[in-house]
Design brief:
The chain is α/β, with parallel strands linked by helices. It has helices at 48-57, 99-106, 113-122, 171-193, 206-217, 234-246, 257-264, 267-276, 288-296, 312-315, 322-325, 332-343, 356-366, 375-395, 400-404, 416-422, 434-443, 445-451, 460-473, 476-493, 504-513, 518-529; strands spanning 2-5, 14-17, 20-28, 31-34, 59-67, 71-76, 85-89, 92-96, 136-137, 142-147, 153-157, 198-201, 223-229, 249-254, 305-306, 329-331, 372-374, 408-409. α5 runs parallel beside α6 and α12 packs parallel to α14 (375-395).
């Protein structure tokens, strides 16, 4: 027996045609399929090969479910932008876009202790697990096939972000190729917008800057940029300069501690967390006050499309451990420990030391067996883990903000063509995002002059700061002391003011307990409110 419930109709709506349902948009060949305005989609899928052919050809962001007489096929896109959840119990198979409904069907009452602790340390649950033991999730680039006759369930990847078949081109040739890739990607983006207003959360960083520069270059003028946070914060100053330079409308939504405190206690916050968590990801809150403010004040059209900059820095190599590039060989233990150190860090690990072997073992078992890797192989596996876990479940899940407030969104920097380009770039051109920064230096000279930026060399101050950081890190005591001092000051100094969700005493105690960021406070509060502490 099977039960399927596809209920979330915010933002992108589910399109249903006979046995096929999909949510989102994608392009196959010259045809765009948009779930919000597709009047017909004549696709009949009876066998797995037909389903895989559709998935491999589709370039976009979607979840798709197809039920034939014998099989149920389901898949999410390459970054799990619209999650799907499933479970099996007592001969029933359940599938939904709502993890809460799946949990109710299987009757899970208690949260898995390992998943709970992992969530506390990372903000998400790895693999196909969720906080509840019988509720599973499809991972990025993954599909499932359920045989209704035999009850057999199979899940496999149709895509993984791996690096191979490397370019032999020169750096100049690669920058030209990257530029053409961006032109292709943003022409597709503009086609998908169909004249509607593009709303860009424009920060001071490179990713959102690339989006507005490409839209301007390709002649798309229906653009609104916005920024948010404490009045006069550095990111917003840069944002306004860029928007003014390009001639785009710019809006600013001020944040205060009082606004955060009020929102965090509101019914909207409760509903949003229930909508966005999937029992597997900490809901993103950074821009929810801003997007809500734009909507409430009617500052943007109701059919606007939000375009955040996720995750241009990652695909270009920003997360690569520098130490890996300096070694010719890395052991599996080194690779596993580097993943653990990088991602299991929301709270002081010393308080969870007895869990470390379990998480290290979990990571270890997800990595292909090999005693020693070349640095290229180790970085490839490191980034693959990051893509599947942090990027898909934590960073890309931030688009739930736009869904919740009933807006469509796009993530052009996760376009198939961009992922395929960076998958073929060698480590030497990805470390420190070196190729991307050379591309930026070459193509954005006017913006650099506007902002007095110089990417041709690392400043002496940068080298001095790095020296001080490395010096402090040599003493655990001194490092802990400096970090705690910095974090204690964030209650009043943070440009987003979001530590105002708690009072100063709560924030101070969290710092002393070893919190890393605002997300440390959020995961602890989230866990307490869904009853994990009763386990």
């Amino acid at each position: 027996m099977t039960k399927i419930l596809l209920k979330n109709q915010r933002g992108f709506k589910w399109f249903n045609n006979h046995n096929l349902s999909f949510k989102g948009y994608f392009k196959i060949g010259n045809t765009f399929f948009r779930s919000n305005n597709t009047s017909s989609m004549d696709v009949k899928i009876k066998e797995k090969d037909e389903f895989l052919s559709l998935l491999n050809d589709a370039n976009g962001f979607f979840a798709i479910v197809n039920e034939s007489e014998r099989y149920i096929f389901a898949a999410v896109d390459r970054v799990r932008s619209t999650p799907l959840f499933y479970a099996r119990k007592n001969g029933y198979f359940y599938l939904s876009d709502d993890a809460h409904w799946v949990r109710e069907q299987v009757g899970d009452q208690w949260i898995d202790e390992i998943s709970k602790t992992e969530f506390l340390l990372t903000g998400y649950v790895t693999g196909n697990n969720t906080l509840y033991p019988n509720v599973k999730q499809l991972q990025a680039g993954e599909y499932l096939v359920y045989d209704k006759q035999t009850g057999q369930l199979d899940t496999n990847h149709y895509f993984q972000f791996r690096h191979y078949d490397f370019y032999d081109n020169s750096v100049d040739e690669l920058t030209q190729l990257l530029d053409q890739v961006h032109v292709d990607v943003f022409q597709r983006l503009i086609e998908s917008l169909n004249g509607r207003t593009a709303v860009i959360p424009l920060s001071g960083g490179q990713d959102s800057r690339l989006i507005v520069l490409m839209l301007k270059r390709l002649g798309y003028e229906n653009v609104i940029c916005f920024s948010y946070g404490k009045e006069g914060n550095e990111e917003s100053v840069i944002s306004k300069k860029i928007a003014d330079f390009l001639g785009y409308k710019w809006l600013f939504i001020p944040y205060t501690k009082e606004k955060w405190r009020e929102w965090y206690k509101s019914k909207e916050k409760m509903l949003y967390f229930q909508y966005a968590d999937g029992f597997s990801s900490l809901p993103h809150i950074q821009d929810i006050l801003a997007v809500s403010g734009l909507k409430q004040k009617q500052l943007i059209p109701v059919d606007s499309i939000f375009i955040p900059g996720h995750s241009g820095d990652f695909v270009a190599g920003s997360h690569i451990p520098v130490s890996f590039s300096q070694k010719s060989h890395i052991s599996k233990e080194e690779l596993t420990n580097e993943i653990f150190k990088k991602h299991y860090s929301l709270w002081d690990l010393r308080k969870f030391r007895h869990y470390k072997p379990k998480f290290v073992s979990k990571i270890y078992n997800l990595i292909p067996e090999k005693s020693v890797y070349s640095n290229e192989e180790a970085v490839d596996l490191f980034e693959c883990w990051d893509w599947s876990e942090r990027q898909a479940k934590f960073i890309c899940n931030s688009v739930r903000v736009y869904d919740f407030l009933d807006y469509e969104w796009r993530m052009p920097l996760w376009d198939n063509e961009i992922m395929e380009f960076w998958s073929r770039v060698k480590l030497e051109n990805r470390i420190h995002r070196s190729l991307y920064m050379k591309y930026v230096q070459k193509t954005q000279r006017d913006i650099h002059r506007l902002l007095n930026e110089d990417y041709s060399k690392i400043s002496p101050f940068h080298n001095y700061r790095r020296f001080l950081v490395d010096l402090v890190k040599k003493s655990d005591y001194l490092y802990d002391l400096v970090i705690k001092f910095i974090r204690l000051g964030q209650y009043n100094s943070h440009p987003l003011e979001w530590y105002g969700i708690v009072d100063r005493g709560y924030s101070r105690n969290a710092v002393l307990k070893g919190m890393e960021s605002i997300n440390s406070i959020l995961v602890e509060d989230y866990i307490s409110h869904i009853g994990c502490n009763k386990n």
